[in-house]
Specification:
Two copies of one chain form a homodimer. The first copy, chain A, has 346 residues and is an alpha/beta fold. Helices cover 51% and strands 11% of the residues of chain A. Chain A has helices spanning 3-9, 13-24, 29-37, 57-70, 121-134, 149-155, 170-177, 180-183, 197-218, 221-226, 263-280, 282-315, 318-326, 332-344, and strands at 45-51, 75-80, 107-112, 139-144, 160-165, 186-189, 252-254.
Chain lengths: 346, 346
């Protein structure tokens, strides 16, 4: 058994920290460690927290961690940050947040910021979830900072995904509607003491209704199968239309995270969703989706590394190839085809 | 010469529209068309507009388009939207924005929303920029909705990148600092009639100063070479420290896009940045970075398609492989290694 992996399995935080750094840096040695850990994964419950910047996600996450700790769960937390593409790391220093938990062995917090040239954020996140899972953490919380494509991918790695927004961000809701709406299991309107909180709740509800209508028209059977009603809906939930027995309607909950208001209700909704997933067999559907996402991210990066290595041996450094493309001396489409064809032939 | 490409080269909007749809859908037939167009690319000036959701980016883009049209430029506009991962498209209908330009042949607007299983948003954006370039558009404006990793990639495809924010989003600035700050050539504080606009300008300036300080400490020669001062700084710019002669200091400009205030100044800053890139030879640096980004995105998707095709022939559908991974019957790391090794062996 590889050394780091053995120490991770015994729950050693420093070993996990080191392995995560290797994973983030894309070090080839990490693969053997991850393979050793892999059979010991699949037990942790994964909660995703995403939504617009400025919505107070980190404060809310903080409160959720405190609540989960009171329930006696051990926690792993991943903060997934956008990366500086030039410096290859968060230039303004690591986040020093969630300090309340700094002395609590039951909470292990790690920022994922480095991205690298190959764009392996989703892959690194997937691997780090597995490390926290293998080291025996009951719950893994993954918080994303941005609201882009990668964040949606990351959100899909969770069993339960919270989408956090704040009052008065009308355009914001427009922006998140297309991608994030679809991955939300629980909506949280944070800073609900601000004006317009009820309006935001109303707008979210309308979007959910519209989604139903569109799906109904489109005859999207898959989507309708997936949609699901909570077994016992909290008052704030109010499903916009009668729904089938195996459908989950994402509740829309109001919080003031800075004052710890509404946080218990969020945790209750997460628990309710967890029960729903277990009772309906949807948990394994989620886990397959996650495994698929993780595998595609892993494969994509691994292939790209191999192909770029080959390209460098045959055509020079990527920068030189890019210069040749700008000068129209190299055809990027032909190059990509040639490298892909090499994969196809045996 | 392929049919669609020939029609695109003659400036035909319907052909460009159709080819873009093929590109977005990842249709293999699009590759030959793109290869035909490729020698005719490299003339358009690309402007990126990114920043937090809710910052009024679309209104600002609208005004910028009007200003560029008054200068007599022909325009191609790409609105890059997050995608619904389940429905494979924006479920709530296409954006019906920027209607002012709907009857103007000089403005060709296209939303990029579909993403597909292989995550080819960056690749599709790069290809669509080339199509607009080949059809002879003087300026291509790429507006992103989210603020995630893919959006940062897309922003790096521009010659000049505008980062738009609004007053009073302190957390927001924290969130965008790491990634977006580094790609900004011009900062725009929109909705500057709201309280706190000057404070936001101040905060942005402090972040730029901090960036200098960090870079200075780190002895990051590359970064210092890249950093550059505007040839003639507008009053709002006020570089935080004396900078070398070949450095560009991103100006921080205030706008009220809904009232068309400050928009001319933004266009002037874009023009100033364009001249700076030309005079310092940095334009080709940008274009190489873009070519690199586009090529990596292209290669990544192409390889993944090939590998997943192979996987399906040998091990069954991706969904089945994912199920086997969840059941620990398949090891994702070993599978990815095996597929990558096939690429390495001739």
């Amino acid at each position: 058994m590889t050394t780091l992996a053995a120490r991770v399995l015994s729950g050693e935080v420093r070993a996990a920290s080191r392995l995560m750094r290797h994973v983030e840096d894309g070090e080839p040695s990490a693969v053997a460690e991850l393979q050793t850990l892999f059979p010991h994964t699949g037990r942790a419950y994964v909660i995703g927290v995403t939504g617009s910047p400025g919505a107070g996600k980190s404060t809310l996450t903080d409160r959720l961690l405190a609540g989960l700790r009171r329930q006696g769960r051990t926690l792993g937390v991943l903060c997934v940050d956008p990366t500086s593409p030039f410096t290859g790391g968060a230039i303004l220093g690591d986040r020093i947040r969630m300090q309340d938990h700094a002395t609590d062995d039951g909470v292990f917090i790690r920022s994922l910021a480095t991205r690298g040239a190959l764009g392996g954020l989703s892959r690194a996140t997937g691997d780090c979830i597995r490390i926290l899972d293998a080291m025996g953490r009951d719950v893994v919380v993954v918080e994303t900072v941005g609201v882009g494509q990668d964040e949606i991918d990351v959100a899909q790695m969770a069993h339960t995904t919270l989408v956090v927004t704040v009052p008065g961000m009308g355009d914001d809701i427009q922006a998140i509607k297309a991608g994030i709406l679809e991955v939300a299991d629980v909506f949280v309107v944070n800073k609900a003491d601000l004006d317009g909180a009820d309006r935001t709740v109303r707008e979210l509800r309308q979007m959910l209704e519209l989604r139903h209508a569109v799906r109904g028209q489109a005859g999207d059977h898959d989507a309708r199968h997936r949609r699901a009603r909570a077994p016992s809906a909290p008052p704030d939930q109010r499903p916009p239309e009668p729904a089938g027995p195996r459908e989950w309607e994402p509740p829309i909950l109001k919080t003031v995270a800075t004052r710890d208001q509404g946080v218990q209700e969020v945790l209750a909704a997460v628990e309710q969703h967890r029960r729903f997933l277990d009772e309906t067999g949807q948990r394994s559907v989620r886990e397959r989706a996650r495994a698929k996402m993780q595998f595609v991210a892993l494969l994509r990066e691994r292939l790209l590394r191999e192909a770029l290595g080959r390209l460098e041996r045959e055509r020079g450094r990527l920068e030189e190839v890019a210069a040749a493309i700008v000068d129209h001396e190299a055809d990027p489409y032909a190059l990509a085809e040639a490298l892909a064809r090499q994969l196809a032939e045996e």
